[in-house]
Amino acid sequence: MNVLIVHAHPEPRSLNGALKDLAVQHLTALGHTVQVSDLYAMGWKASADGADFLTSNAGERLFYERASKAAFTNGTQTADISAEQQKLLWAQAVILQFPLWWFSMPAILKGWIDRVFAFGFAYGVGVHEGERWGDRYGEGTLTGRRAMLSITIGGRAPHYTDRGVNGALEDLLFPIEHGVLFYPGMDVLPSFTVYQSDRMKEEQWPAVAEAFKARLDGLFTDAPIPFRRQNGGHYDTQQVLKPGLGDGASGTRIHRVREGEPEQRPLTPWGGTPA
């Protein structure tokens, strides 16, 4: 299977660097083919601006969304954007490797998403009429692929629980797991997380490494987070969860299918749901 690792840490000798290297070695040993986009090593341009498009009208106001759509459609994106899109289409699984900085991903990784997830590629896909708001949230260009976050966190695990001062980790990661990865169709596995990463001692590494390898072993077999598909029948025409669904849950958790709830409509072979 083909695996893309998108790595976002400025120090190759960091824990993130070690996890990235371990993933490459272990996945390769399992027979998978691995590509790495090491964003800092690549000198990745993080800012989304007019320089992302090979053709533009000088002096005209920039509407980045419209320009992104035109460039993707006409093949006038810059080469770095197109190359990363091709890696995503090649991949059958995607791992984002990064440290949690200020409750989110490093700016360079956010810039990778801003530029690579172009209009017509990752969003603005499918029919937008009637009850359909396009192919998104479980459908779209990247349907059939798997994704997983591998993150390091300086804080302690109890800080990232429902009653912890930082909030539950699954809520903090919801914009990435649901809003970035599930949005264009990927099935998202629960994150692999290392807490107190800046205090980790050398003797702790073997246990972390074994735990990570176990997660990599299940990259194509472990159950993904059961997010509800937008067009699976659980949302109304305004894309609001229908009454009776999500009972007993709150916050972002209502967007996960719960045991005993009605099944979602099946996907058609091309990714859409039957009319």
Automatic annotation (TrEMBL):
It holds the Pfam family Flavodoxin_2. The keyword Ligase does not apply. The keyword Oxidoreductase applies. Keywords: Oxidoreductase. Residues 1-214 form the Flavodoxin-like fold domain. GO terms for cellular component: cytosol. Residues 231-275 are annotated as: Disordered. One of its GO terms (molecular function) is NAD(P)H dehydrogenase (quinone) activity. Belongs to the NAD(P)H dehydrogenase (quinone) family. This is NAD(P)H-dependent oxidoreductase. It comes from Corallococcus exercitus.
